[in-house]
Amino acid sequence: EDIMIILIEGADGSGKSTLLNRLSEIGFKTMTAPIPNRNMYEKWNKLVYNSIYYGENYIFDRSFISEIIYRVIDGRNSYISLGQVCELLKFSKIILCETPTQFEDSIARGETNITTIENAELIRHKYRDFIKMVNKLEKVPYIVYNWKVDSISKAIHFINNKRR
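Request: output the structure for the sequence above.
Response:
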């Protein structure tokens, strides 16, 4: 079995935390991503090393991918380079969470990061485009997961399958 980090990504309201909680309940090692800062790459590199060293997959709610996506949206400088992201992705699989109602769900939950449907759709498309790109360029495996219709077994099967 490949040991690696599993990155659960997607816009607000897409079901990331719901999936993470379900996986945690059935015994997977889940973690919250480190807060983005200047040492972001070093922190993630250590997490990848620990995953391999201790022989267990770590599953994260958000990752360095979110840092890239949101910096593209807001125009600020990222704490992590694209080269560093590609290096970390060699040890990663991605679960992209999406639902047709993720914007409405985020508003209903009281989230305030994304305030318009236009921004929500822009972010959804940036995630899709980025993940498709790294899949093509770096062969990073991914699935799209909709917690409202997909069985948890879809995510478990993806996590447990070999990377390549």
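Helices lie at 16-25, 40-54, 64-74, 82-89, 102-108, 117-138, 152-160.
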